[in-house]
Amino acid sequence: MQIGLFHRQALAGILGLACAWGCDQPGASPPEPPAPAVAASLEPVKAQPATIAKSAPAAETDPPRQTKTATQGEPEMSTSPKPLKFPVQKSDAEWQALLTPEEYRITRLKGTERAFTGAYWNTKLAGTYQCVCCGRKLFVSDAKFDSGCGWPSFFRAIDEDAIVTQEDRSIPPPRVEIMCSNCGSHLGHVFEDGPPPTGLRFCVNSASVRLVPREAAEPDPN
Ligand SMILES: [Zn+2]
User: 33, 55, 68, 196: which could join 192 in a potential S-S bond, CB 3.0 to 4.6 Å?
Assistant: First the structure.
């Protein structure tokens, strides 16, 4: 999987960091990431073709390949990521009309809610988490786990195409930002200190998603 290479390189190199969102809660410090084990389980993270990850990081010296992709320009793991293209496009005014100020700040301006304050950091309701901006289904409750970091945490996305990633160097240390693949909404970051089977932790702002509870007529298969 093409994205795998990126993540193997980028996540292993970029991450292994502490929860850079301020996981300063007791017990929240992530362990050193077991890179080899995680590398084999990165498939859930899938970038859109038009985004990143089709090429190896700059540090790599792979010969240039003529791989045909739908990229808008060669993606680079640089400090100034190029604007990504998403199917859903709205103006700032349109987003502001659709969202609450907090939702707008977090999803469109890449903000972060305070730990332990969001609507879903501790909820165990069964259901599907959708993008608050466009409704794209992003995560299911079955993949949610208690990370202790104060934000909703998932070990995988609902499908491989749900999430787009890009390097985030807005504050040190570098992290891997996760976004809705449909509208580019900022969701949070992904770290390599998650539980099995993926070893990943998708750390998501509650304000970026909306939980649609599983319908009563559709009982949990358990
Ligand atoms: Zn979206």
Answer: 33
